[in-house]
Amino acid sequence: MLSIGQVRLPSALVLAPMAGISDMPFRLINRSFWRGLAFTEMISANSLVHGSKKTLKMLSSVADDRPLGVQILGGDPETVRRSVDILSGYDFDIMDFNAACPANKVVSKGKGAALLKEPGRLQQMLSIVVERTQVPVTVKLRTGWDETSVNAVESALRARDAGVKAIFMHGRTRAQRYSGTVDYSIIRKVKESVEIPIIASGDALTPVLISKMFEETGCDGVAVARGALGNPWIFRMTAEHLGGKAAPICPDVREITQTMKEHLALNVAFHGQKAGVMIFRKFFSWYTKGMALKGLKGRAFGAVTWDEMLRLIEEVQVLTTGGECCIPSKHGTRFSEIAALEKKYSGLLKCGIVCERGGEDDV
Predict the structure, then answer these.
(1) Which residues are annotated as catalytic?
(2) Which residue has the higher pLDDT, 356 or 177?
(3) Which of 23, 38, 187, 257 could form a disulfide with 217 if both were Cys (CB 3.0 to 4.6 A apart)?
(4) 112: helix, coil or strand?
């Protein structure tokens, strides 16, 4: 089992934070197939300090959403200090500091992967976080800024000296972003240089690739990001693969469409119908990747109501299995299903944390 500080985790697989993706509905749908550490979306220290309503809602959670980590992004010591103080009022198990985000709007402000160019400043930021929180602190790193400045080992050593309890190590430079190949050898060097756990990331897209990451790097855990998009079964299948099962059980169309319905219901309960359906559009595409659906995906991107999207999910099953679709009726099966799902997830409407103060998101 993987342990980070005093936190013992039930799985060596971690659901990584993804901007615009890792909301509570996404985390909960993944947790229905696996129990392990998941993270909120990346939280901007600036936005948190300024009371952004959108950012505060990202901190929402429920009892079943555990163990849970929060990841913060910042470049100013005082702002980071204040943001950690705010987060200390929430019930998180792990606090992660992002020094890996490659986005131009982030690095141009000296945040994220820009800190890889200044290991001393990175250590200062990490020391602040460690000093201001009672939960174990982790850090997300890349191998370096570019191929001429690969300094992952130095960054890892400075993180350890700052009191960090584990390192999330992405096997690419900032210059690579998410292209090119993952450098397993650098991750292994980092693992051999520090005694704290290393959770590797990069191209953890299939059970075979996740297994390869463990074998090639000697890492303690693997963070799954894009591999979980429309595929919460990756955790179950990976556990089966690592356990020696020759052919992990893949979901059939019925399981896929039922999971889509559950995810859609979670979205509507948490975000409201309009936003929940709009957010689900991209997930519809991910869940149905590789299926021949005759323009259905295009129609999904035009859906605006829960009923419309549910109808399209039912059509997925019709087109892929030849089954029958529910007939639209005010008193029909689909409306009964909506009512049942709405009742099941109505509690999520009460758990969101909304602040009346304004404040725009600022990374």
Answers:
(1) 101
(2) 177
(3) 187
(4) helix
- Contacts with 54 (C-beta within 8 Å, 6 or more apart), sequence order: 47, 361
pLDDT tens sequence across 190-227: 999 999 999 999 999 999 999 999 999 999 999 999 99
Contact between 283 and 232 under an 8 Å Cβ cutoff? The reply is no
Query: pLDDT tens across 311-342, in order?
Result: 999 999 888 875 544 434 443 555 566 667 66
The residues, ordered by sequence, that sit 6+ positions from 104 with a Cβ below 8 Å of its Cβ are none
336 close to 349: Cβ distance less than 8 angstroms: no
Range of the domain at 287: 253-325
261 φ/ψ angles, rounded to the nearest 5 degrees: -65, -45
Task: Name the H helices within the chain.
Answer: 24-31, 45-49, 53-58, 77-87, 104-107, 119-132, 152-161, 184-193, 207-217, 234-242, 253-271, 273-287, 296-300, 306-321, 333-345
Number of domains in the chain: 2
Give the tokens for residue 289. Answer: 């990747």
Strands 38-39 and 94-99 come out as unpaired
Helix (H) or strand (E) holding 99: strand 94-99
Residue 219 dihedral angles phi and psi, to the nearest 5°: -65, 165
* 227 assigned to some structural domain: yes
Task: Say if residue 218 is in the same domain as residue 267.
Answer: no
Q: 242, 264, 285 — which closes off a domain?
A: 242
> Which pair of structure tokens corresponds to residue 169?
């190590």
Cα-based angle 171, 176, 179 (whole degrees, multiple of 5): 85
> What backbone phi and psi angles, to 5 degrees, belong to 266?
-60, -40
**Cis peptide, bond prior to residue 119, ω within 30 of zero:** no
For residue 38, give the nearest of 251, 225, 204, 197 by alpha carbon: 225
Are both 190 and 263 inside the same structural domain?
A: no
Residue type (1 letter), 300: A
